[in-house]
Amino acid sequence: LKTYPDIPTFKEQGYDAVFRQLRAISGTPDMPDYAVKTIAEALKKVSESERWQKDYIEKNALTSQYLGPEEYARAVADAEKQYTEILTDLGLVKK
Question: For the chain, what is the domain count?
Answer without folding.
Answer: 1
